[in-house]
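Lab notes, practical 5.
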Amino acid sequence: MQHNESIEILSSLSSRRNNSVVLVSIMGNQCYNSFTWVGFLLNSERQTVSSNKERIFIIDPIEHERITLSHATLEPFGYEVQSTGDGAEGLTAILSDPPDLLVLDLHPESLSGADVMAALSAQAVDLPVVILADVGAEKEALHAFRLGARDYVVRPLREAEMIQVIERIMRDIRVRRDRESLVGEVRQASSEAEQRLRELKTLMSIGKTVTFARSLDELFDRVVRAAIQITRAESVGFFLRDEASGALILRAGQNLSRNLLDRMGQPVEDELASVVMSSGETFLQGGEALTQFRPAQQGATAVIYAPLVVQSKPIGLLWVANTRLQFAPHMKDVMTALADYAAIAVVNTRLRSTSQSRSEPELVQPVVEELDETGDQAAIDMELVGSLRSKLTHLMGNMNLFRTGEMGPLPPSHQAAVDVMHREFEEAVAHLDELMPQE
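Output from the prediction step:
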């Protein structure tokens, strides 16, 4: 049987997509074509998994061997290959930009293979190494294993054996990377969950202080500081609708632009605020899309506008703005909750003013007109307290999802904090029950 007609059945079952590929190579002129064909198949499949090519560096003083390994063996399988015959040159390149795998001859020019591996170990470069060894150099290969080599191939090199060795190592690397990526994702999700719980705890604490503010000025100040604290925004503003004119009055703010500072306590023109008040829904936007809405805060590149809604009627608006950073999507829900607290607090503060004093008719009258046009004070009080109690009860119901574990288990410290906040809300509801007119 002539050499170019001899057939060698080469190993290699590949478990990609549950298909087994048997490499059949006809030695001689057809060897390159068979490996190119199989390499194309596996490379196409690999590219569907990752758009980044895996990189292999070859340090081999035998030039024709480097060329064969690079162009006929590895590149058809989708690997990006760099090569050199000089050990020192290769070491410099690897330290500058580590590849995924190193194919290393034991005796390259200027620096031995053992010295290259020792230098990589000294620099804490975790790089799998495949040794190229001559027949009879098993002792040298064993020494390379002690230095951290993963496998070795004995000359004369055969493409099938080389591909098998490299693919086995790269599969292990891919599995490890996938595992590390999954662990990273789990840790990230855990960290985000912890952050959400901290935000929930902060929001509940803020809600308690805001809800029981003694005056509107105190309320406005607390809401503004709370918005800055929980969203880490650069600026914040609080609009309250004037019931007589329907205009939005700027009642409080922090780090406001000059045009708003000059309008404190006066009506403000804000097209975006008008749209949000009409919709009754919280609005989050940033980037170029925000320019078409023209928020009142000059220079803002990201905003959240949250309306204060009482009985399906917006009575004001709380907004935060940034000039550099965008707001995380979940901050929309946080601002919605804070605006709900603020709405409850406005009603509660006006209710107290109605019950304790008639010294602020301009604050009490809008509530009177909104809830009861008959002038029956008992009915007004009943409806106001009922609305406030309904809001608090709804918030308690949401909080109870965490207490009962329906939103997932909580750490003991968080569970205790949620229990305390739930009890405080129950006390607030009980206080409102005491304010209900006696029959």
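Observations recorded by the TA: The domain at 3-179 is CATH 3.40.50.2300 (Rossmann fold). The first helix runs from residue 30 to 49.
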